[in-house]
Amino acid sequence: MLTGTGRTSVLKTAFDTFNVRGRPLLPIVQGGMGVGVSAHRLAGNVARLGGVGTISSVDLRRHHPDLMAQTKKSRDKELIDRVNLIALDREIKAAKVIADGNGMVAVNIMRAVAEYASYVKQACESGIDAVVVGAGLPLDLPELTSDYPDIALIPILSDVRGIALIMKKWMRKNRLPDAIVIENPKYAAGHLGAAKPEDVNAPHFAFPAVLEGTLELFKELGIERERIPLIAAGGVNSHEQVQELFKMGASAIQLGTAFAVTEEGDAHINFKKILAEAKPEDIVTFMSVAGLPARGVRTPWLMNYLDKEAKLQSKAGPKQCTVGFDCLAQCGLRDGIAKAGQFCIDTQLAFALEGDVKRGLFFRGSEKLPFGSEIRSVRELVEFLLAGKRPEPKAETAPIMVYKDATPA
Ligand SMILES: Cc1cc2nc3c(=O)[nH]c(=O)nc-3n(C[C@H](O)[C@H](O)[C@H](O)COP(=O)(O)O)c2cc1C
């Protein structure tokens, strides 16, 4: 039995802590979720218990009415970028207040966003504990953070090939990842680490293959297994599954969807209900504007978009960013890339954050959630996964909103 870390936290769990840059942590990571789904409240509360809470860096101004007021009608990219850095700074500082010295507060930055480097720099200046990068290969992360040697660097990858590439490139710069998130595209939510939707089930993404292959790679490179903890992400929903993953070589697990729907999750209650109440047949994998497959719930906007996708793709051509944010370095809609998605991802994700069930894009993983459609606390989720403790039954509450007849906010 162990008791987590830090001054106050303390959950009894069945597993050892894992170490990231010398810090003992509960072996649970809340994955970064944009736009605004994991901000200070969720990340701070996970860290407070002794785990890793992750803020997603992208477009956090949406949680700050004063910053939104400055930019709502603006198409001035420089201004939008500037206020987003202010928002990131505020969110990191607020999460650290909630964490109260426990666990770790991380920031997730997508390699695919145009302002990746400025988000990394701001996060470091604002006192983040770890920088986590997915949606692309963060080959330059060691240089970008070289003035902050105590900040942990954690890439998100999906197969041994990608892990080997990062390891070898970073080793030439005398840096090793402080942990690696292994995200399985068969189950995960949001952008997936496969080239096409048809590839997400490929055997080289399966957890046993990637965990075993990575430990083998560490041996070849002369790296001790404990030096770089492996964090398994995608579809984790039971205590037994956590035990299995640890037996296969994982040192921690990362969850996204299940954390998004907790009481502390930073999105609107409608957002949580859409994710929690989705049935397997409501979940779909499609091409995102980022040129990667993505997984989400077939809500009205997505159904309508998918009906028109082929037509929109056949007409794809370069155009100006309609919102002036130019969030992605390469955007299928703006740059006219026919095989990528043809919608404004920031606009659709922002609708979802606000609980607009008709117009939002709701990312979600493929698997059942630990508590079915119930909204529970971060603490109950962590205790269930790490200690196998089922929470007390909840009193019935009236359903808040069903997406089919909900009115946009
Ligand atoms: C609403 C939502 C948004 C997400 N956004 C991001 C993101 O911006 N960057 C990222 O690396 N992962 C993102 N993810 C993936 C999660 O961090 C996590 O790795 C993944 O959801 C794990 O799978 P699970 O949902 O089955 O637990 C997102 C997931 C969800 C549910």
TrEMBL record:
<keyword id="KW-0560">Oxidoreductase</keyword>
<dbReference type="InterPro" id="IPR013785">
    <property type="entry name" value="Aldolase_TIM"/>
</dbReference>
<dbReference type="InterPro" id="IPR001295">
    <property type="entry name" value="Dihydroorotate_DH_CS"/>
</dbReference>
<dbReference type="GO" id="GO:0006207">
    <property type="term" value="P:'de novo' pyrimidine nucleobase biosynthetic process"/>
</dbReference>
<keyword id="KW-0288">FMN</keyword>
<protein>
    <submittedName>
        <fullName>2-nitropropane dioxygenase</fullName>
    </submittedName>
</protein>
<dbReference type="GO" id="GO:0051213">
    <property type="term" value="F:dioxygenase activity"/>
</dbReference>
<keyword id="KW-0285">Flavoprotein</keyword>
<dbReference type="GO" id="GO:0018580">
    <property type="term" value="F:nitronate monooxygenase activity"/>
</dbReference>
<dbReference type="InterPro" id="IPR004136">
    <property type="entry name" value="NMO"/>
</dbReference>
<keyword id="KW-0223">Dioxygenase</keyword>
<dbReference type="GO" id="GO:0016627">
    <property type="term" value="F:oxidoreductase activity, acting on the CH-CH group of donors"/>
</dbReference>
<dbReference type="Pfam" id="PF03060">
    <property type="entry name" value="NMO"/>
</dbReference>
